Amino acid sequence: MSEFLKVLEDQVQIVALIFMATVYTIRLIWMFRFKAGKEITDSVGSRRVGVAYSMMNVVMPWAMESARKNLNFYAQFVIFHAGVAVAIAATFIIPYWPEFFEITPIMRIFQLIVGAAFAVGVIRLIRRITNPSMRIISTPDDYFSIILMTVWFASGVFAIPNEYKVSEWPLIIFFSMTTLFLVYVPFSKISHYLYYPFTRYFLGKTMGHRDVFPRKRGGEEPAGL
C-alpha cells in the first residue's frame, strides 16, 4: 500500500470527520437557540406514546399511506439506506480492521448490499429525471446528491475487497469520494438525518398530546404521519 493511500484512508478521513462534526455541532447549537412551541390545549392523549410511535414510523410502512400503497418505494428506501450504512462501515473496516474482509462470504454480502443500493440510486435518478412531478420539485442539490451517492456506491463495490496489490485506484476513488461527502453533506439535503430525531420527537409529542395516533377509533386505522 502506498503512503498516499494510507494517509487518505486514515488522517484525511479523520480531519473530514472532525470538520463534519464541527459543522453539525454549530448547526445544533443554532437550532437549540429557538424555543419550542407549547400546546395550550388540554392533553387528550399520551405524549410518550406519540413520540415512540413517531420515532418508529420509519420501520412501520403500514403506518404511512405512501408505503402502504407502494411497497416498492419502501423497499427501495430500505435498500438505499442499508447501502449507506454498509458503505460507511466499510470506510472504517478497510483501514482499521482489514482482516474482516478477508472472510469472503462477509465481503460478498457487503458488496451485494452496496451494489443493490447502487441499482436503487440509478432507479431514483431516472425517476427524478423522467417524472414531471419530481422534476418540478427537484433542485440542483437533489440531482448532485443522488448522482454523488450512486457513484460512491459503485466505487464501494470495487473497493470493499481491499485488494490494492493489483491497483489502488478503486480504494483511492472510494476514499476520495468519502472525503468529499464528509465535507459536502453538512451543507446539503442529505443532512436531513441530523434533524430526524428532533422533528420526530416534536411531531410525536404534538400528535400524542392531541391523541391523533396511534389510538384506533371505531375500527379505523390510525392516521399516518
Notes on the structure:
The structure is a single chain. The chain has one domain (3-33, 70-197): Fumarate Reductase Cytochrome B subunit. Residues 217-225 have low confidence and may be disordered. With 225 residues, it is mostly helical. The protein has helices at residues 3-9, 11-31, 47-56, 65-69, 71-96, 104-130, 132-137, 140-159, 169-184, 192-209.
List the helices and strands and how they pair.
Layout: H1 3-9, H2 11-31, H3 47-56, H4 65-69, H5 71-96, H6 104-130, H7 132-137, H8 140-159, H9 169-184, H10 192-209
Helix pairs in contact: 2-9, 3-10, 5-6, 6-8, 8-9
Relevant terms:
Fumarate Reductase Cytochrome B subunit; disordered C terminus; globular; about 220 residues; about 0% strand; mainly alpha
Biggest sheet character: none
Distance between termini?
Answer: 50 Å
pLDDT < 50 stretches: 217-225
Sheet/helix structural class: mainly alpha
Question: What is the CATH-assigned architecture?
Answer: Up-down Bundle
Strand content: under 5%
Classified in CATH, the superfamily is: Transmembrane di-heme cytochromes, Chain C
CATH class: Mainly Alpha
Return the domain count: 1
Number of helices: 10
Task: Write down the overall geometry.
Answer: globular
Radius of gyration: 21 Å
Residue share in helix: 55-70%
Mean pLDDT: 88
Q: State the total count of DSSP E strands.
A: 0
SSE string = HHHHHHHHHH
